[in-house]
Every structure is written in structure tokens, then in C-alpha cells.
Amino acid sequence: MATASASLHLAVPADKVWQLVGGFSALPDWLPLIASSEPAEGGRLRKLTTQDGASITERLETYDNQARTYSYSITEGPFPVTDYLATLQVSVSGDNQTLVTWSGRFTPNGVSDAEASALFQGVYEGGLEALKGNF
Fold first, then answer.
1. Cα(108)–Cα(63) distance, rounded to whole angstroms?
2. pLDDT in tens, 14-62
3. 35: DSSP letter
4. 16-22 long-range CB contacts below 8 Å, 24 or more apart?
5. At a CB cut-off of 8 Å and minimum separation 6, what does 34 contact?
6. Other Cβ atoms within 10 Å of 84 Cβ, number
7. What is the structure's pLDDT at 94?
8. Separation of alpha carbons 91 and 30, rounded Å
9. Is the dihedral of CA 127, 108, 62, 47 positive or negative?
10. What are 58-86's pLDDT values in tens digits?
11. C-alpha–C-alpha distance, residues 87 and 44, integer Å
12. Domain residue spans in the chain?
């Protein structure tokens, strides 16, 4: 099993950050790579379309609004992994300070652990950099 993780500190209240990222179908609101997110199964699935036209389907596995965190799996997508599970968490790290962590674990399929980890490390770091631009 391979992993990747990225974190970002923001000088913004955690509730304000969660308001932007906490909706499971909210990715297009802060992640430019995602052109659209169509909810399905009562919001338990999100069908994503990337800017280059790729399709990704993700399932919400856990959601805790009070703790400002959710986990999701990828059920369909162009990635060379299986058993993907990621978590996005927004936590207070001080007065009007927030720590956002995006992490995942997955089983590489046809690529090395290092290659799969590097792929998602880039996704998480790029995504958090894009998030920073909203504040």
C-alpha cells in the first residue's frame, strides 16, 4: 500500500475554509483542475469531469461536519491504483489559523509505489496551492 499527504497552513478561520471545501460536490469551487461535479445517490457519489475531459467517480465514505473532515474512495477513474481512500481535514491550528490536510492511501496497479505516491502527492499539493488562492 502506498500513501501521499500534503498540508497547508492558512491565516483564515477553520470554519471559513470548511465552508468552501466541506461540501462533497464543492471541488469545482476551489480546485481549477475539476470542471464539474455532479452529485448522485443522494450526494454519496460525485461524478467529476476534469478540465481535460477525464471522468472520475468518487464515493463519500465518511463525513463529519463538526470535525470538518470527510473521506472518499475512487470507484472509477484514470489512475493506476486500486483501493484508493483519501481524507480531507480542516482543523484549527491557532487563533484564526487553519491546517488543511489532504492525504490518501492506495494500491498501485501497474506502477511502482513511488510513482503512484508521486502522482497523488502532486494532486494534493497542487490542490492545496489552488485552495490558498481563494483566501
1. 26
2. 999 999 999 999 999 999 999 999 999 999 999 999 999 999 999 999 9
3. E
4. 16/135, 17/68, 17/90, 17/98, 17/100, 17/131, 17/135, 18/65, 18/68, 18/90, 20/131, 20/134, 21/88, 21/90, 21/100, 21/131, 22/65, 22/68, 22/70, 22/90
5. 27, 28, 48, 49, 50, 51
6. 18
7. 87
8. 18
9. positive
10. 999 999 999 999 999 999 999 999 999 99
11. 15
12. 2-132
What angle, rounded to 10 degrees, do the helices at 113-132 and 14-21 form? 110
Contacts 24+ apart (CB under 8 A), 24-28: 24/60, 24/63, 24/70, 24/72
Which CATH number does 2-132 carry?
Answer: 3.30.530.20
DSSP codes joined into one string, 20-34 = HH-STT-HHHH-TTE
What does residue 82 show for φ and ψ, rounded to 5 degrees? Answer: -130, 170
Which residue type does 31 have?
L
The residue written with cell numbers 490518501 in the block is 104
Can you tell me the distance from the alpha carbon of 116 to that of 108, in angstroms, rounded to the nearest whole number? 6
Sheet holding 81-94, edge to edge: 2-10, 97-108, 81-94, 69-76, 55-64, 45-50, 34-40
